[in-house]
Amino acid sequence: MDDYSARLLQSVTAVAGPWAARLVDERLTANGLLGLVPEESRLSAVTETERLAIEGLRELLELDAEQQRTNPLAVLRAATAPIGRFLASVGATPVERDEFDQRSFPDDVYGLAPATWADIDASLLEPGIEWGAWKAATIIGRRRTERT
Predict the structure, then answer these.
(1) Stretch 35-53: mean pLDDT
(2) How far apart (Å, rounded) are the C-alpha atoms in residues 120 and 129?
C-alpha cells in the first residue's frame, strides 16, 4: 500500500468509531429515542459500521490505483447500512432530504451518507485530498508514460 493510502486508512481508522457513534446518537436524539433503545443493539450498529468502513477501505486501498472501481467516500457511505437498519428497527423517522440527496443516495433515508470528508471528521480533509491528488497523478503519469 502506498504512503497516501496508508495515511488515509490510518486517519479513517482513528475516527470511524466516533463518527458511527455520533451518527447513531444524533438520529436517536432527533427521534427522542436516545437512552430508550437497547444499548447492545446500538453498540452493535456502531461496531459493524466501524468494521465495514475500515475493512472496506483497506480492501479498496490495497488495490492498484487503476483497479479501484469506487472511491473511499463511497465505501464509507455503504458502511452506514447497519446504522440505517438499526434506526429502522427502533422506529426512527426518516429525515427530510433535498432532491440531490434523494437522487444521489436513494437508500439513505436517515441522511447518514457523508458527502465530504468533513462530514465524517475535519481531520480527514487533508489525507483525503492528498490521496485523491496522488491517485489522479499516478494514473495520469502512467498514461503519459504509455504514450511515449
Answers:
(1) 96
(2) 14
| DSSP line for 41-94 | HHHHHHHHHHHHHHHHHHHHHTS-GGG--S-HHHHHHHTTHHHHHHHHHTTPPP
**How far is Cα 60 from Cα 37, in angstroms, rounded to an integer?**
34
For residue 103, the one-letter residue type is R
Length of the chain (residues): 148
Write out pLDDT tens, residues 70-112: 999 999 999 999 999 999 999 999 999 999 989 999 999 999 9
17 band by pLDDT with thresholds 50, 70 and 90: very high
pLDDT tops 90 at residue 69 = yes
Burial bucket for residue 19 (CB in 10 Å: 0-12, 13-18, 19+): buried
Domain that holds residue 22: 3-147
CA distance 137 to 143: 10
Q: Residue 73 in contact with residue 101, Cβ under 8 Å? A: no
Rounded to two decimals, what is the model's pTM?
Answer: 0.92
Query: What total number of domains does the chain contain?
Result: 1
